[in-house]
């Protein structure tokens, strides 16, 4: 079975929402935080006309 990055992130948010997913310097981001950031970037790219496969 092949998983996309999007499915891994959304599944992580569903299963581990409040667990730490990423530590960058002194900042800790939960799976929920990470999913929100990824969705925000995806929405920005879509608003600029970027589509799947570009």
Characterization of this structure:
With 54 residues, the protein is α+β, with helices and mostly antiparallel strands. The chain has one domain. The protein has helices at residues 5-16, 31-47, and strands at 20-24, 27-30. Strands 1-2 form a two-stranded antiparallel ribbon. A hairpin with a 2-residue loop joins strand 1 and strand 2. The longest helix has 17 residues, at 31-47. The radius of gyration is 13 Å and the shape is globular. The chain starts with a helix and ends in a 7-residue tail after the last helix.
- Give the ordered list of helices and strands: HEEH
Number of strands: 2
- Helix/strand class: alpha+beta
Number of DSSP helices?
2
Write down the domain tally: 1
Overall shape: it is globular
Give the termini separation.
24 Å
**Major β-sheet, in short?**
2 strands, antiparallel
Q: Uncertain runs with pLDDT below 50, 5 residues or more?
A: none
How confident is the prediction overall: mean pLDDT? 91
Instruction: Quote the beta fraction.
Output: 15-25%
Radius of gyration: 13 Å
Side by side, the strands of the main sheet go 1-2
Share of helical residues = 40-55%
């Amino acid at each position: 079975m092949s998983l996309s990055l999007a499915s891994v992130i959304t599944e992580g948010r569903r299963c581990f929402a409040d667990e730490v997913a990423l530590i960058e310097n002194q900042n800790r981001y939960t799976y929920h935080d990470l999913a929100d950031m990824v969705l925000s970037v995806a929405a920005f790219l879509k608003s600029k006309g970027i589509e799947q496969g570009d």
